[in-house]
What we know:
10% strand; 2 domains; 29% helix; two-stranded antiparallel ribbon
Amino acid sequence: MSRRNDSRDASGSKREPRPDAVSADGLAPGYALSHPVGGTVVGDDDVFLCLGVSAELNTLLDELALVVSGTRSDVIRKAIMLLKIALEAKQAGQKIGIVGNDDCMITEIEGLL
């Protein structure tokens, strides 16, 4: 693993160190270690990932973040947890859907998994 110490990005612009970055081995703030799967170690257990999305998905993430009073990361975490729950339900032979106030399924969600 190597220390990021180049102060310029690919375009040649000056890159400021990230003051919130703390590496697992205690490197000075602003420096981090490359993570083997493409993220950057930010703390003992946290990993910062770089995610490329379309402009439409970026806008949707922003809109959803406003609705849930959170961040884009919160939206992605919640979506992953919902997918995990849906996968577990499918593996248990259960169905995934929208249930109305009368506890009857209004819409069965198919093709998600």
